[in-house]
Amino acid sequence: MARVFVAGVGMIPFSKPGKSDSFDVMAEQAIGLALREAGVEYRSVQQAYAGYVYGDSTCGQAALYRVGMTGIPVFNLNNNCATGSSALLLARQAIESGQIDCALAFGFEQMNPGALASAWSDRPDPMARWNEQSQRLQPAPDAYPAPHLFGGAGLEYQRLHGTRDETFAKISEKARRHARHNERAIFREPITVEDVLASPVIYGPLTKLQCCPPTCGAAAAILVSEAFARKHGLSGDVAILAQAMTTDYESTFSAGSMIKAVGYDMAREAARAVYEAAGIGPDELDVVELHDCFTANELLAYEALGLTAEGTAERFIWDGDNTYGGKVVTNPSGGLLSKGHPLGATGLAQCTELVEQLRGLCGPRQVESARLALQHNIGIGGACVVTLYGKV
Fold first, then answer.
1. Domain boundaries in the chain?
2. Are 301 and 343 contacting, i.e. CB atoms less than 8 angstroms apart?
3. Label partner for 70 (CA 20 to 30 A): which of 5, 49, 208, 315?
């Protein structure tokens, strides 16, 4: 198996719907940034993996052809919110297997305002089982599906552990504080816990300021083998040390739990596999970019990823163990809550942040002496990808 390095990453500033370029232009810009940082010419790329959720077939080619037309295989992927990291995983596998030496993974999304909605009404809804279960467990016929699922998981956690509403709001306050120094984030203005709680209630403990915004954007990564990096004099300082992908287990529906329905077991098992493969524990991590589509999911992810024991997330938050000066810095980018969440681009935006952290390029938001970084990207429906990067 060939060792895989992240030679270059790139992402454009995220923006609100209606304020961005078209998807193909955004993708071209992000790919160009990644190629330039890597010091690789496009003709060296042997395969490309394009991730997007809302778009027609071959959008990946439409975007990539703006960069060049060299006849390489282009794979279009849709794995809901885990799309970007799914593209990253396939690119890594292709290199690790020895089939190729240089791959491009990129993701993009041109979204519409408002809550997520299905694009098709004339065929079975792939989210039907999740929506039916959430309505059975916590009936709320007027609630939007995604915040109902994640807000319901937060409500279930509150009932189990007595967690205060302020604890969930504290996560949004932290996200804005981190995003203040990220010029590519949408929301950079500081907010208080009181501001968060005063915003309109969406469902359960979730208020509007605890929900990630629909976003447009693009991000990309160039992956190479060790031999390719050495031959071309490329940076070999950041490697993918371990990576795992999971899909749903029977417990998603059999447990009768909203927490399970939003992917807790997928995340826990993917993280376990990564730690085992790398021979490390979660206490050794320096920085984490995790999937905070809603504050409830960030809280659950702390425990699923092993950053704190089950039932202790509230103390973890109020002790400041999730930020600078604590045990592990989570979402220094501002996360999905503040940076934004263009579905297909999110996994590669997380990759960009972590690679830049390991290279010491993050300025005021730099995590001091970062050497091990974990990425958690989840999509309901379902898929979860956990990736461990290391400075080598």
1. 4-114+213-391
2. no
3. 5
